[in-house]
Specification:
Helices cover about 30% and strands about 25% of the residues. The protein is an alpha/beta fold and about 425 residues long. The protein folds into 2 domains: about 160 residues, Lyase, Ornithine Decarboxylase, Chain A, domain 1 (Beta Barrel); about 210 residues, Alanine racemase (TIM Barrel), CATH 3.20.20. It binds pyridoxal-5'-phosphate.
């Protein structure tokens, strides 16, 4: 794991300062026994409004990043469309009153039954990730007498070596190679409208230059593919992957620069519409996770903190080597020193990083983690060892509102 994180910047924004001040005043009840998430909705609204102040890209929200009802409602209010990847995500988005015309379906595990069910519920845009999916989409369209829009998901590979913009070619189940897609003609599927290409095979990009170079290198092979299969390329969907500076190294993406770059890509690809499905770049920054220290000890000379919850609430650091930045919730004038931060599970993987915290941090002190608005609550392993499920709160107009209280294990154990 990339161990040492400088937590300075993450908690410096006016929104973070406002929320931390409020949490110091009113620690919710759940804080005493387990960790909880808080999402700053006013800050989220302001951020989304900034992302929408442009006419270059059509924006979708990748629901997997955070499917909480109030988060979806806030994105819907900001004019975002929704990328869902499962029946659960579809049902949650529809339940928030989102019109099915504003929903698209991505994901490598779409069965014929799922496709039919999505069409029956009014979804009309699909990203096909295999030849089977394409055949099933065409069959379901005939059966349901609709004509869905379909984008083909492409997985490119480059020659190994310095010129490889991804730094390697790892094979994934997301989409298909150009060679596989070249085996079809759009006229073979007259009952669906194959009108676009989807490509997304990078993650947490933090350099505008690298991102632009990668996008630019994708345009010629994609245009060629469209020509080869007889498709008028109307839509190019570049997925997500815009990065968050989890390690607090000062490397952040400039949104205005992305807009300049994507206007060029749109022109080069000669498409009518350019789409992005944002996950973390839309919602990571609005979210925080707070958990109390249960124990502090020195082990072989290393200061260790054990929290009430760890990867059972926040798995991401264990699978990505990117700890979330953290700070002590209360103010302290003590010098900072390094602590290993662990959770309560019976595995050494349950570690949230090595962080600098004030030397007087002690038992019962709540710690606050930043950038937890994406891939937090639902990207965790909450059942292992039967600890409490995390609560979720929103913070709006200076008020903390409970969306779901913390729940003990007998809430789900049978
Ligand atoms: C198809 C698709 N689109 C968009 C995203 C969002 O990615 P990010 O959170 O990096 O923006 C994901 C994430 O896995 C995805 O699978």
């Amino acid at each position: 794991m990339a161990e040492l994180v400088n937590s300075a910047h993450c908690f410096d924004s006016p929104a973070a300062i406002e929320l931390i001040a409020a949490l110091k005043e009113q620690q919710p009840e759940s804080a005493k026994q387990a960790g909880y998430f808080v999402y700053h909705l006013d800050a989220l609204k302001a951020h989304l409004a900034e992302l929408q102040r442009q006419d270059v890209i059509k924006l979708w929200f990748a629901v997997k990043a955070n499917p909480l009802s109030t988060i979806i409602q806030t994105l819907e209010g900001a004019g975002f469309n929704f990328d869902v990847a499962s029946t659960g995500e579809l049902s949650q988005v529809l339940k928030q009153g989102v019109a099915p015309e504003r929903i698209l379906n991505t994901g490598p595990a779409k069965s014929k039954a799922q496709i039919t069910s999505f069409i029956d519920q009014g979804v009309n845009v699909f990203v096909a990730e295999s030849l089977n999916q394409l055949i099933w989409l065409n069959e379901a369209a005939i059966e349901s007498k609709v004509k869905p829009q379909v984008l083909l998901r492409v997985q490119l590979q480059w020659p190994e070596g310095d010129k490889n913009p991804l730094g390697g070619n790892s094979l994934t189940p997301f989409g298909l190679s150009v060679a596989q897609w070249q085996s079809i003609r759009v006229t073979d599927f007259p009952d669906i409208e194959i009108c676009g290409l989807h490509i997304f095979q990078w993650g947490n990009m933090l350099s505008n230059e690298k991102m632009f170079s990668l996008w630019s290198q994708m345009v010629p092979p994609l245009k060629q593919l469209a020509e080869d299969i007889g498709m008028a390329l109307k839509i190019l969907d570049l997925g997500g992957g815009l990065g968050i500076d989890y390690l607090q190294q000062g490397a952040t993406l400039s949104w205005p620069q992305i807009l300049i770059d994507l206007a060029i890509i749109k022109q080069q690809a000669a498409v009518e519409e350019l789409w992005l499905e944002l996950g973390r770049f839309a919602v990571a920054e609005c979210g925080y996770y707070i958990a109390p220290v249960v124990d502090r000890k020195v082990n072989y000379g290393q200061e260790q903190l054990v929290l009430a919850a760890g990867i059972n609430h926040l798995l991401r650091p264990a699978i990505t080597e990117q700890p979330f930045p953290v700070d002590l919730l209360r103010t302290s004038s003590h010098e900072k020193q390094l602590f290993d931060i662990h959770g309560p599970l019976c595995t050494s993987m349950d570690k949230l990083g090595k962080h600098a915290l004030p030397a007087d941090v002690s038992v019962h002190d709540p710690l606050i983690f930043g950038y937890c608005g994406a891939y937090g609550f639902t990207e965790s392993m909450p059942f292992f060892l039967c600890h409490h499920i995390a609560a979720e709160y929103v913070f709006s107009q200076g008020k903390l509102i409970e969306v779901r209280a913390s729940q003990p294990a007998d809430w789900y154990l049978r």
